[in-house]
Structures are given as C-alpha cells and as structure tokens.
User: What shape does this take?
Amino acid sequence: MRVVIQENYDNMCKWAADYIAAKIRNHKEDRPFVLGLPTGSSPIGVYKELVRQNQAGELSFANVVTFNMDEYLGLPHEHDQSYWYFMHDNFFDHLVDMKPENINILNGMTDNPEEECRKYEEKIASYGGIDLFMGGIGVDGHIAFNEPYTSLNSRTGVRDLTTDTRIVNSRFFGNDPEKVPAQALSVGVGTVMDSKEVLILINGHNKARALAAVVEGGVSSKWTCSAVQLHNHAIIACDEAACGEITVDTYKYFLDIERKERL
Assistant: This one.
C-alpha cells in the first residue's frame, strides 16, 4: 500500500488527477479503460482538474467507461441531491468527449433493487472488471455506503444508512436527517477490492482518525476501508491535515518512500 502525502487538498487533488490521467493515456488494451468513481466533497478537486485537462485537449474520455459507487434509494435523477445529478453537474456534463452510454450509475428509482444490483455487478464483469476505482471515505472509515461492520467480501447491494451518516449528510438536505434517504444502493467492499487498482482520497482534520485506522490499524469490518491493506495495488492520497493521528514514524516512512519513488 502506498500513502502519498500532499501539503494541502489542492495538491492532493492535482496528484490524484494526474495519476488517473496517466493511467487513461497509457491504457493500450483494445477494451475501454474502466474507471470507478465516487461522489462527495473529496473528489471535487480531482474532477475539476480532469475536466481542465479534457477541455484543454490533454486528456480524452472517448474510450473510458465509468461506474459510480452508489446512489440514494428513492431519489430520481433530477433531484439535486441524487448522485446522478452530482456526477453530471460536477463532472460528466463538462467533459467534451464522454459518451453518455459509457456512464453507469445505479438507478435509485428501481422497482427491484436486488436485480438492479445484480445487473450492475454483471455489467462490471462484462468489461473485464474495473481498472482503477477512486474512492473517498467517511469519518468512520466507511467506503461507498458500506457502513461499519459491512462484510469485507460484500458485493453491490442495498445498504441501510446509519444515523451518523444521515446526520453528516443532512447538511445537503436542509440540515434535517429525516430528509436523508434511509437506504442506498452501493457497490460492495469486495466489488471495490476486485479492481486492478484502488485510489482512496482522504483529506481534512475530521478524517485523521479514519486515516490512522486504515493505515496503522488492523483489517476490520469496523473500518471497511481498511480492506485496502489487502490489495496489491492500493494507494491512499491524503493531505497534511488528515495525518494528525498517525505516528511520526509512520508519517516519515511514507514521505521517505515517496521521495525515493520520485528519484
């Protein structure tokens, strides 16, 4: 596992965007490059930089297929808090050559959530799996909507949201947790871990405890993102603010390793 520490959020996002862009450019297989994507505040800076490169003619998305991590159950596309809306508003609508048919987001308005999730897994498999899955984590270390104690082998399915998650997300729903959907559709921890590469963004003081648990703690379903410790090609990109709870020795170790990577 690599831990790439950047001075601030902007630098973290620039590093992550450049890493993703290089992977897309260097993709030589006949099939499309398959990219897994998150919502939330952490990836917004990454999306802005990828859009900038795309609009400047530096990066093409013509041969990229995307799969998003999750979607609220019961929110239509046009709802301004649906993740379909978020992704189009912050990313897809600004790309000059992204093909709409290559965008995959779970349907929160489905009449058969279990079947929707089964077909999502099948569609991912039909492309040969995900090449790189970018994700963020919650303050409790959850990845996608895989709350604490979700199986680390879980697949795409219906998730019940904890009270804490609904409270945190209520800032987008008029600060009323009751307006936050109680369930969501989400890829599983196992779905993410099946990707060829996993890139996790962790930024801000409020994520410091989660970063320490993911990097220095044991693998546990209490912190579902800790599963990345078992992945052969996992990267955590973080900012200085998120490093407040890791030990000095751990901090110095990863800085030293990344310095040598650049030499």
About this structure: The first helix runs from residue 9 to 25. The two ends are 19 Å apart (CA to CA). The longest strand covers residues 197-202. Strands lie at 2-6, 33-37, 64-68, 70-72, 103-104, 132-136, 157-160, 183-186, 197-202, 234-239.
